[in-house]
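User: Predict the structure for this protein chain, please.
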Amino acid sequence: MKLGLIAGNGRFPFLLLDAARAQGLAVAVAAIREETDAEIDERARTDPKITVHWMSLGELSRLIETFHKQGVTKAVMAGQVKHKQIFSAIRPDWRLAKLLLNLRTRNTDMLLGAVARVLGDEGIELISSTAFLEPLLADQGVMTKRAPDEDERKNIEYGLGVARAVAGFDIGQTVVVAAQACVAVEAMEGTDAAIERAGEMMRSLQEASSGQGDQGGDASTLARRLTVVKVAKPKQDLRFDVPVIGIQTVETMIRAGASCLSVETGRTLLFDREALLERASAAGIAIVGSRRE
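Assistant: Here is the predicted structure, written as C-alpha cells:
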C-alpha cells in the first residue's frame, strides 16, 4: 500500500513519515507550498519509497489527481495549517470554491470534514494519524518528575471546565489559568501564542503592582504561577485535528512563567516525548494527563 500524506507545517509530518516508513509503507507526500518545510524534499532524495508533490493550499483537484496517479487509497493529514491561511490566504480551485460556498459555518472542522468527504467520494479514505503514533499519546496521570501541587490541581479542575466549554464552540482548545481565574483563551493564534499572551498579562499586572510601592502593596490577586490546560473538542475528529504539544510549548511556558500543563489522556500527541518531559522536569514544570469524564 502507498500512503498519502497531506503535510502541513512543523515536525508532525516528519514524525508520521518516519513511522509509516518503519512499517514498510511507501509514502506520497502532498506538500503545501504555504506550510510544509522544504526539508521534506531531502527526505525524498534519500529514500526512493517517498515521493513529494508540491501544491498550493487551495488546489484540491490537484491533490486528488496526484493521489490517483500514485495509487493512493488511504491518506493522513499531519501538521498544522494556520487558521488564517485557510480563511484569508487561500486561493481555491473550482472544486474547493464550490465546497466553500456550501459550508454552513466557516470554521476549520467544517472545511476539513468536507474535504474528507470529497476525498472519500474519490476513493481516498482519510484515516487518523494516531494509528501510526500511538506511543506518543499522553498517558493518564503525572508524566514528569514533579506532580501538580494543590493550587495547580485547583487550576486544572477549573481550567478543564472552561476549556471544554470553549472547545465545544470550536473557538480554541487551550486556556491559561492563574488562581482559578482565566487569564487567556486560545483562538486562531494557537496554543503557544495564547500562553505568551498570558505571560505578558501577568507581567503587566506584576509591574503595575510593584509600581504602586507602599501605597498599594500587592495589588494583584493573580500574581501567581500560570497553569495551561489543553483539551480535545467534544467530537474531535482525529483524522485531521489532533491536539499536539512539543518542546516549543514547554519553552514558551518557561518564558511565560507557567509551571503546570494538563493535556487530555489518549487524545494529545507529545512530540519528541522523552526530550519534552526531560526539559519540563528540569524546568520544574509538571505535566499531567487528564481523562475526559
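Residues 191-211 form the longest helix (21 residues).
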